Amino acid sequence: MARLGAKDRGLFERPQSSGVWWVRYIDGEGREHRERVGPKGLARQVYEKRKTEIREGRFFPREQQRLVLCSEVLKDYDTYCDRRKRWVMSSGARGIARKRMKDAFGDVPVNKLKQTEVEGFILGLTELKEPLKPSTANRYLTVIRAAFNYAIKQGKAKTNPTVGVKKFKENNERVRYLTDKEEARLFKALPLEHHILVLTDLHTGLRQGELFKLRWTDIDFYSGTINIRQSKSGEGRRIPMNTILRKALLALRQARHRQGQKAKNGHELYSPFVFCSPNGAYLRNFARIWYPTLEEAKVEDFHFHDFRHTFATRLVMAGVDLYTVKTLLGHKTIQMTMRYAHLAPGHLKQAVEVLARKPLAATRETEASVVRQ
Predict the structure, then answer these.
(1) How far is residue 180's CA from residue 178's CA, in Å, rounded to a whole number?
(2) pTM of the model
(3) What Cα–Cα distance (Å) separates residue 159 from each residue in 145, 146, 153, 315?
(4) CB 3.0-4.6 Å disulfide test: which of 67, 85, 101, 135 passes with 170?
């Protein structure tokens, strides 16, 4: 921020319009120092005091650790996640979140960030012009908390300012599934080269990240299974392929082989990924295809993740038990699968009908009394 004049030399406000003022000065050995003070009037007094101490040779700063800003902590954790290939958010959401957090407290030293500031930031996310959902705001808090825990391990921070900040209560009961008519319109609008991608999700219920990371080495055509190396819970699982999906993926595999043989170098279109970009790389920016397709198909309030709901819903409505659905989805607890229980009224009716197969003595007495009346 530009200086406002000689009177405010060495003072700057950050974040802008926050009312938090800092002082910046150079000591006698040419080293730069920054101090976060607070009110502007107090910051001006601190600045004049430091300049006087330096001029009179009375400024002897204590030996202390290198100034570590919150932006460095967030960047370190981002690098750590990239190396482990495990992220809390999708790639697009990570970029937006990184900018928001940097703007809010990126220039604040780690030992100066307070719990109230973190809490205010998280609450503010739900009060934007386009407010974030509680579940999304919770992901932000998870990232900040994990970043500071990692900084503590590195010795760059001593405390975690997120301690005591509570997460929002999330409502994960939303179950939006694709109807038969919507499915027909969606496939009609979807580019032909992506039909197999959507078909795979409808027949496996994979998460978007699991689907896009799928490699040919993960598919066992002999046993008819798909191997998910690492799911959201950190554990792997194997999903059986039905005859429709196995036939479709096998046809895609053979088509890729033919394309590779036609290419000049023999490897141009031979990608390790099952679903890839035109040049064989990891499929990115699928949103530019996905959202126009939804609009053309007139399918409203539908997220890509809802293919997973569609998969589970169709299984439950077909009479598949919830424990089997839980295993196929990779849920850690049965409570996560219970959201689909109400979709199986026939299954529940069949369960209570078991009692009618062998009437109890009291039931027989009741029936007899009704007949006598």
Answers:
(1) 7
(2) 0.56
(3) 11, 12, 11, 47
(4) 135
Residue labelled with tokens 């409570």: 335
Q: How far is CA 272 from the centre of its chain?
A: 25
- How many CA atoms, within 13 angstroms, populate the side-chain half-sphere of residue 54? 17
Tokens of 321: 């038990």
HSE (CB half, 13 Å, CA atoms) of 298?
Answer: 3
DSSP 155-209: TS-SS-TTTTPPPPPP---------HHHHHHHHHHS-GGGHHHHHHHHHH---HH
The rounded distance, in Å, linking the Cα atoms of 332 and 313 is 18
Residue 50: enclosing H or E segment and its boundaries?
A: helix 40-55
pLDDT in tens, the chain (373 residues): 444 455 678 898 888 888 889 998 888 777 788 888 888 889 899 899 888 888 877 776 654 446 889 999 999 998 888 887 677 776 667 888 889 999 999 999 998 999 999 999 999 988 888 888 888 888 899 999 999 999 998 888 889 999 989 988 876 666 788 889 999 999 999 999 899 999 999 999 998 888 999 999 999 999 999 998 876 655 678 999 999 999 999 999 988 887 766 665 555 457 889 998 888 888 888 888 998 999 999 998 888 888 999 998 888 888 888 889 888 888 888 877 887 777 665 555 666 666 666 555 554 554 555 445 5
Q: How many CB atoms lie within 10 A of CB 104?
A: 19
* Residue 17: both structure tokens together: 């319009």
> How far lies 63's CA from each of 60, 66, 67, 283, in Å?
9, 9, 11, 50
Length of the chain measured in residues: 373
| Contact indicator for 154, 269 with CB cutoff of 8 Å | no
